[in-house]
Specification:
alpha/beta, TIM Barrel, Immunoglobulin-like, 9 helices, 17 strands, hydrolase activity, hydrolyzing O-glycosyl compounds, Glyco_hydro_2_cat, Glycoside hydrolase family 2 catalytic domain-containing protein, GH
């Protein structure tokens, strides 16, 4: 009985997803795209014009942006042959927005109305992304989702030619069940999924009764909230090579899910969140990485010169006394065996987000006495100030591609 019900749900979901894509007749998707790539393929984006061109050159055909401040992307995307899932920012109650404040609600609605009217006929526009994880930190997500649904209805009334997307976090199965019938004005359901959850998210949504087309609105490797931790609490970040393998496997898996109509790896750009490298697919200077290589290959774009491969990293110990000598190393190779250059730097551990904000200050670089440094090894003197630190390792090849890793350590 259960097997038959599950199978029928899957068939219905697949049929609805296929019908939805056909009805949209998306100009972003050419007729000769191979099976498994005929979806919204691109990335969540936070960069500049140069970064957007790199995204297009990598084989992306759709870009997801988060807010009205990214409206410039529409014109640039048109020039580059990209389509845009245009974000409409919906303020978060956890950051002080009052869902029961008529003035706040009216002002937000008017801003969205004006923006949609201004941009609804833009040739690069593909869909409207109404909000992003508005329900975070709410004991009951329904009031926040009800407002997203109301705003999505307004958007649909102003622009029936483009679908609406609501985006939620991958939270509890109970919350996923609440999504099944809460928001009829959202044509697509977007879920931000990280780590191993992405391999189960479609089955969980189907079990919850969700039959809408699904967009993985943020796809990321193991997040800092999921990762293993050192005894003092510092999360252990995967290397760029490990992240690239994750993106390869996750994109391959999602390409075989008919209910999934779009996947947006997170984040095409650089972002300080726990570290300066955890979630950025690019380095802060715009350098490409093994993660961007993995995306290009998944998008059908050959990568003749791969980013450096990290085979291992290590540090002499986890804890050191102030002023003690520290040694560390990395085992890495370039795609053609040519010499790599390595930057070693020590940063203080991040203190996290500011109160009432999603902004996370960049930790200070800590000056240390370097005793020896080459492409594979480093020896330096531990900081005099006790506390948690990270040794960041950035390797570059002759083509400017980069690989990253870091090693948390404690001084006490």
């Amino acid at each position: 009985m259960t097997i038959r019900k599950t199978a029928s749900i899957r068939c219905l979901a697949a049929a609805l997803a296929a019908a939805f894509l056909s009805a949209l007749a998306l100009s972003a998707l050419s007729a000769d795209v191979p099976v498994g790539q005929s979806r919204w393929q691109g990335a969540a984006f936070s960069s500049d014009r140069i970064g957007l061109k790199k995204l297009a050159d990598a084989g992306a055909r759709v870009v997801r942006v988060y807010s009205e401040a990214d409206a410039w992307v529409l014109d640039e995307a048109e020039r580059l042959g990209l389509k845009v899932v245009m974000g409409l920012w919906v303020a978060h109650p956890r950051l002080g927005f009052g869902l029961d404040d008529p003035a706040m609600v009216h002002a937000q609605e008017q801003g969205i109305r004006e923006f949609v009217l201004r941009h609804r006929s833009h040739p690069a526009l593909l869909a409207w992304g109404v909000g992003n994880e508005v329900e975070l930190a709410q004991p009951d997500p329904i009031p926040a989702w009800r407002e997203v649904n109301r705003l999505a209805g307004i958007v649909k009334g102003l622009d029936p030619a483009h679908p609406t997307l609501m985006v939620v976090s991958d939270n509890s199965n109970e919350n996923l069940r609440r999504l099944a019938d809460c928001c009829p004005n959202a044509d697509l359901l977007g879920v931000n999924a990280f780590g191993g959850s992405v391999f189960e998210i479609v089955r969980r949504l189907q079990a919850a009764g969700v039959t809408k087309p699904i967009v993985i609105a943020e796809l990321g490797p193991l997040g800092q909230w999921q990762a293993g931790r050192k005894p003092w609490g510092a999360p252990v970040e995967p290397t760029s090579t490990e992240k690239a393998a994750y993106f390869r496997d996750a994109l391959d898996h999602l390409a075989r899910e008919p209910q999934v109509v779009g996947v947006f790896p997170f984040l095409w750009g650089a972002k300080q969140e726990q570290t300066e490298t955890w979630h950025g697919l690019l380095l802060p200077d715009g350098s490409l990485t093994a993660m961007t290589d993995a995306l290009s290959r998944a998008w059908g774009k050959p990568v003749p010169e791969s980013a450096p491969l990290i085979r291992g990293i290590g540090i002499a110990a986890d804890e050191f006394a102030p002023g003690q000598e520290i040694s560390a190393g990395v085992d890495a190779v370039s795609f053609d065996g040519s010499t790599l250059t390595t930057e070693w730097k020590v940063l203080a551990e991040s203190r996290g987000w500011k109160p009432d904000s999603d902004a996370e200050p960049v930790p200070a670089r800590v000056p240390v006495q370097t005793l020896h440094a080459d492409a594979a090894t480093v020896r330096f003197v531990a900081p005099r100030q006790p506390g948690p630190y990270r040794l960041f390792i950035t390797l570059r090849d002759s083509n400017g591609k980069a690989a990253t890793a870091n090693l948390p350590f404690l001084v006490r």
